[in-house]
Amino acid sequence: MNSMARNRLADRIFRVVGLLATLLGLLLLAIFLWGLLRTGLGRLSGQFLSSLPSRFPERAGIYTALLGTVWIMVLTALLAVPLGVAAGVYLEEYGRKRRWAALLEINITNLAGVPSVIYGLLGLEVFVRFLRLGSSVLAAASTLALLILPILIVATREAIRAVPRSLREASLALGATRWQTIWYQVLPASAGGILTGIILALSRAVGETAPLLVIGVLAYVPFAPSQPLDEFSALPVQIFNWISRPQHEFGVNAAAAIIVLLVITFGLNGVAIYLRNRWRQQLP
Fold first, then answer.
1. Which of 25, 81, 196, 213 is the most buried (most CB within 10 A)?
2. What is the pLDDT of residue 225?
3. Which stretches of 128-164 are DSSP H helices?
4. Which InterPro entries does the protein's record reference (predicted)?
């Protein structure tokens, strides 16, 4: 068998294996979603979304946890997005390609793969104990901002790197400064990719449970947060608490809460995919 025939055989094998893996993944996802919908869909109602937590499963709701999740999303975005985008712009447009820059880039990429519980321990020591923020919305949002910051930096750099070099050269040739070129040309051209990275990073932050548990986020909070220093609950923590209960009814409540969390996550991912496709179509 010559090399061309071996390459064709290997290509066919990889295609078959890839197709089987994709079908298996879709089948497992369909089974999971079917079981989840069958268990928790009937529990979803206006009463479930607007009720406070309770020790009686038929009265329990996710109102405080849902609002806590919204607070986390907003504050995490406010803390992480400006820093992540600014760091990505600096490293890609201003950072000199030296040995320390390559080392910094490798470390940022590695930080994106650090387990989330490590960020929880860091948030517990820095924000909860040292800064004395307690188990507040601000402490949780700061911890999750650190978690998604490497993802935002990498996504920003990749989006900026995809902008053609000729666009920068044309702007500079017309007399624009470097900052004007970045602000009026590079950032608008890479906005779709940057926004996609932001949404995907926030969708990861929404579903994180380990950092919230480590910093001491409560499962039962009888009020919705009204300011960043308030204690709060969140959907992942509420789901974890309900699943750990022995009563079957709390398991049904957890399934319904998981559906709500999945709707939020899938919605964010859907928006990210739409923006990414539109951005790719606009690229020359």
1. 196
2. 86
3. 137-161
4. MetI-like, MetI-like_sf, Phosphate_PstA
